[in-house]
Amino acid sequence: MSSEAGRRVLRVEARSLEALAGRLDEQFDRAVEELLHARGRVVVTGMGKSGLVARKIAATLASTGTPAFHLHPAEAIHGDLGLIVSGDVVIALSHSGETEEILRLLNIIRRLDARIIAITGRTDSTLGREADVVLDTSVEEEGCPLGLAPMASTTCALALGDALAAALMLAKGFSEEDFARLHPGGRLGLKLARVWQVMKTGEQVPRVSAQTQMPDVVLEISRKRLGCAMVVEDDGRLAGVITDGDLRRLLERDSEPMSRCAAEVMTMNPVTIRPDALASAALGIMEQRKITMLPVVGEEGKLEGVIQIHHLWGTHLF
Known about the structure:
Strand order of the largest sheet: 2-1-3-4-5
Helix content: 40-55%
Order of helices and strands: HHEHEHEHEHEHHHHEHEEHHEHEEH
Low-confidence stretches: none
CATH topology of the largest domain: Rossmann fold
CATH architecture of the largest domain: 3-Layer(aba) Sandwich
CATH class of the largest domain: Alpha Beta
Largest sheet: 5 strands, parallel
């Protein structure tokens, strides 16, 4: 019984979304143009359940390259209207189009020289008539057993906000790099992080010369705790790498391992990565080759840092 009631609501909402997709027309195109060419920011407002949807729409727009914020309509008329300035675009949500708090804002918004995009279930409502652009989120039924609680209508409004954000991303050429820049601490953004953002640099990198004797190489590896040492030429170019594994193999085959210098032990032409490569690409190389670190080299093969597999795990990238 309960599962059937749940399936009914989901089917009602699915049908409502399908109908909404079929209604997208030049009004949607106009809304995208208004948002794309806004001289100010995007202000999203709504009351009650519509207010909760408005918060999510504002957050989605802001995180995908369109400056936006949520404004509570009741607080707006008690002082927060100062947040709206000339050139802003206001997205106002009201399923009935007659929400008192929203209607009280309309004339004030007009005086502030801001544009209005209405998301409403009644295009002939007061909000619909006063708006510059009207987006129709009408539904045949809500899905609520009592026919009272907003369900399908709020789902449609939420999905329409996502549709606007997606269209704006395409229109602006919003890229993975842009997303990562706006989500430096989020899991999704971290997946798009570049090697230079997570690699060890400067004094953190174990460096030796080709002539460094093995006791000093071992000391450098131990001191920097990366399980390796970068063998670097005088001009900064990477000559080779010595890893913990190289040391073990040296001890196994050589009767006087500590008499050697770095040039005799190092792995020449090691696998490297560029600093602007994706960190995920670095992880893929390390997993494929069963290694735990990669030297990071820039122009002319000069060493810029080291990225270790534990650095990626430690930042919760993957």
